[in-house]
Specification:
By secondary structure, the chain is α/β, with parallel strands linked by helices. It contains 15 helices and 15 strands. Helix 6 packs antiparallel against helix 8 and helix 8 packs antiparallel against helix 9.
Length: 427
């Protein structure tokens, strides 16, 4: 049965409305006005949105795939000028090129967009960086959650020169990222009244092309933005989807997008596949993927009150568009990388397993993947090599206990061991 045909349970009130923070009638959603060319406040839906004036800037710290291929693209389309903060090599390449292209793919369509009206500041040019932070409409980060403390010095001087507090949009997969950056800024003397760290969850996959500034990305441009922490009117930018609390979108991404990727990666590696598009053509992987996504969708609706119809649409989009899309060029090696981290207690597999346990749902869709992950071998990946060493030394059970936090007395422990033993390790 296809995911689109599977029922997803939901909670409803007596009048038939879906309840929970994500589908209730009082949710803080807004419609967006797409065109504007003067600085203006626009009353839309439940709140105010800030139109933009040509020439206003957004400082983007991090010129990687998300910084260039999503943030700069959508703010440029809204009439704002991206200002990249990058290291020397990337900054020099961006300056010399003067433009780059993004090919948007999906749904049988392909569209090329060019980003050209941007500025570049290297991380060592603190004078220009200070001025840019002082005058921009807002800043955004796309540096990886582990690097957030390191960017505090790039922000702190400009904060003191601003006429109003700075909204810093965190385009990171980091539920605690806002507090991490806020603490790093405070440690350098920045007053918390001078900034607000705004969490976001970018949806599209973006991939840089080899030896090029150009990128390929999914045609969806959605980024969920936490409106509750945006100081003042939020900017009216196509693709920015404002919610009061985006926490459930982090978990949806982790337990659907990322858990699905883990299944494809570890089962695909076992079957000798090299790309995601190749792996999802294998019947066993398709069947197990469908089971996993259905289980994840059911428990997310149950646990977080996510809208059942929107959740089902999201899962169908993953199954029918993202995973099979050969143009995205995603590889098994990239998705399988660092298995010890991905097998951690709060990560995409064990975290989902715990949710399923709490909801009294079958954990088999996840324990199959954990068993395959324990078999993953890649001598070029230090984490995979360490995983192999631990399995050789103490057996898969030792990894389940020490890395996953799954005790030997738990039923899911036996399920993981059975899944591991059902596979023959590839030599």
């Amino acid at each position: 049965m296809h995911l689109a045909d599977r029922p997803v349970p939901c909670h409803q009130s007596s009048d038939g409305q879906v309840i929970g923070g994500w589908a209730s009638p009082g949710r803080a959603r807004t419609k967006r006005r797409r065109t504007f060319n003067v600085l203006t406040l626009v009353a839309v839906g439940h709140g105010w949105r800030l139109g933009v004036a040509p020439g206003e800037s957004v400082v983007i710290i991090g010129a990687g795939s998300i910084g260039r291929g999503l943030v700069a693209d959508v703010v440029s389309a809204a009439g704002l000028r991206p200002v990249f903060v990058a290291r020397q090599a990337k900054g020099k390449a961006l300056r010399q090129a003067g433009h780059y292209c993004i090919r948007l793919v999906g749904g049988g369509q392909s569209l090329v967009r060019t980003v050209s009206d941007y500025d570049v500041i290297t991380t060592d040019d603190r004078r220009r960086l200070r001025a840019a932070i002082a005058s921009c409409q807002f800043a955004a980060t796309a540096v990886g959650s582990q690097n957030l403390p390191a960017i505090a010095p790039l922000l702190v001087d400009g904060l003191a020169d601003r006429a109003e507090p700075l909204n810093i949009l965190l385009c990171e997969n980091a539920p605690q990222g806002g507090e991490v950056l806020a603490q790093a800024l405070a440690a350098r003397g920045a007053s918390r009244e001078r900034f607000s760290c705004v969490r976001s969850s970018p949806e599209p996959m973006v991939r840089s092309l080899d030896r090029s500034l150009d990128l390929v990305a999914e045609r969806i441009r959605t980024t969920y933005v936490e409106a509750a922490h945006w100081l003042g009117p939020a900017p009216d930018i196509p693709g920015f989807d404002y919610w009061q609390d985006i926490t459930p979108f982090y978990w949806r991404k982790l337990y659907t997008n990322n858990a699905g990727h883990a299944l494809i990666a570890y089962m695909g590696a076992y079957l000798g596949c090299t790309t995601v598009a190749e792996a999802v053509q294998r019947a066993p992987i398709r069947r197990h993927l469908e089971d996993l996504l259905h289980a994840a969708g059911a428990v997310l609706v149950h646990e977080f009150g996510l809208n059942p119809e929107a959740t089902r649409d999201h899962l169908v989009q993953l199954q029918d568009e993202r995973y099979p899309n050969a143009e995205l060029g995603d590889t098994i090696a990239r998705l399988a990388r660092d298995p010890l981290r991905k097998l951690g207690p709060g990560e995409r597999l064990v975290g989902l397993l715990r949710l399923l346990q709490a909801a009294h749902l079958s954990t088999l869709p996840v324990t199959r993947v954990i068993g395959a992950a324990l078999r993953y071998r890649d001598p070029k990946d230090p984490s995979a090599a360490e995983l192999a060493r631990r399995v050789r030394r103490g057996g898969p059970g030792a990894v389940l206990e020490s890395v996953c936090g799954i005790a030997a007395i738990e039923p899911c422990f036996a399920e993981c061991i059975a899944a591991f033993e059902a596979l023959e390790c590839r030599r």
